[in-house]
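Design job #97: recover the sequence.
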């Protein structure tokens, strides 16, 4: 698949991430990822939470992320034909928004996502993000909630590895860009008869956990890796 919303209270999201078990705190990214079910061989969604931080000041605007690479547990299976395709062009999505795609092709979005522009006193701003499937292509439309500019990103999957390239977004000092701050993306389970859009691995390993991993590449070239584990039945 090729990259990139539903809103919750930002402060509550931050508190939950800080306290939630399984969150790996990195220098630049606190990362947690899991299925929406712990039962093997079952149709599942994906819940991803990330808090991006500046390495010198965790409360400052992060250095923008350029690429996110997520590796899902071995044995996870996919059937993108379960979800209808959204064939809208990037331009149509930016102009028309969600109405450019068939409603059934929407697979999920952000819950309390934020970004930081870096302008003095601006702090964190709510961010909208929605995702669709297009023949195995993950299409994401995102942008600041109170600003009309929207950007399209794409995610591509090879085996268990999903790679998302984040577009540059205009912003303020010190780099003239905005940076994603909080991510909470929820893609619900989707099924069509006995077929599942995403299905959990057929067994729970002897360790009793499924392991997710991530690699984040930032605008200054630094790469940070993270691991997230969730218990399975």
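Job complete. Output follows.
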């Amino acid at each position: 698949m090729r990259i990139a919303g539903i809103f919750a209270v930002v402060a509550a999201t931050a508190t939950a991430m800080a306290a939630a078990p399984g969150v790996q705190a990195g220098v630049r990214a606190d990362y947690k990822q899991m299925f929406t079910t712990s039962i093997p061989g079952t149709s599942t969604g994906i819940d991803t939470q990330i808090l991006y931080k500046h390495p010198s000041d965790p409360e400052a605007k992060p250095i923008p992320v350029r690429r996110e690479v997520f590796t899902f547990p071995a044995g996870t299976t996919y059937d993108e034909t379960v979800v209808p395709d959204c064939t809208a062009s990037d331009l149509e999505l930016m102009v028309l928004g969600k109405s450019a795609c068939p409603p059934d092709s929407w697979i999920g979005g952000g819950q309390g996502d934020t970004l930081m522009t870096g302008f003095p006193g601006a702090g964190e701003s709510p961010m909208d993000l929605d995702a669709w499937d297009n023949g195995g292509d993950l299409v994401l439309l995102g942008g600041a909630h109170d600003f009309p500019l929207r950007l399209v990103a794409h995610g591509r999957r090879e085996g268990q590895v999903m790679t998302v390239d984040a577009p540059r977004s205009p912003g303020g000092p010190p780099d003239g860009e905005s940076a994603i701050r909080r991510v909470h993306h929820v893609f619900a389970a989707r099924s069509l008869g006995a077929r599942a859009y995403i299905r959990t691995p057929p067994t729970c390993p002897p360790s009793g956990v499924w392991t997710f991993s991530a690699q984040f590449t930032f605008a200054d070239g630094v790469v940070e890796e993270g691991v997230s584990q969730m218990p399975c039945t």
